[in-house]
Design brief:
By secondary structure, this protein is mainly α. It contains 8 helices and 2 strands. The longest helix is centred in the C-terminal third of the chain and has 47 residues. It is an enzyme of class 2 (transferase).
Length: 225
Amino acid sequence: MSAVTARDVLWYIPNQIGYVRVVTMCLSLVLMAKHPLWTMVVYGVSCLLDALDGTMARKYGQISSFGAVLDMVTDRSTTTALICFLCVAYPVWSPVFQLLVALDISSHYIHMYATLSTGSQSHKAIEKEQWLLNLYYTRRKVLFTICALNEMFYMGLYINAFPQFKSYYFPLLGSTHIGAIIALVCLPGYIFKQIANVVQLNRAALMLANKDAAEATERRSAKKN
């Protein structure tokens, strides 16, 4: 049986799906300012493919570190690209959006770096004591639902920036744009995702600090001996 080459890994089926997601992200950037309907279609395809690549990786035994990093980087890039548009559409809220981008990127980067540097095989391997992250990462339906609600929340805000979409009347809310309704419905899942980001950032920081402390202790012991 021939050895697996780097080229083979780059062309794993789940990684090919990841490349398609990169293309859909680039296409959404071109469409975003003037073609909201097409943007929603392209963005929706990207989100669906995000759920598919992991399934294909497990089905064909094509799990790879490259694929995990590609998936996470594409997720962060796609969401950040949309938030960049929201900063333009809602300039008053730009500082909040910028803070959320910083939290999202930093928490995921530190989390992945910490898990890889401490020898963990997957950034989704979370101990049961971290119940919120364990629930988020080990239950596929929970992970998919929360990620979908997070993206739909931002997409609702995106739609809300285009007045040509319908508004609906609600007794307590009055005439409300369909985008605002979508964002409101998805808000609980969105809040869960932001809390998970904070918890993830804290856990990863402690993992790295514990690793550094253990190495520092080992160096001190070596000097004494």
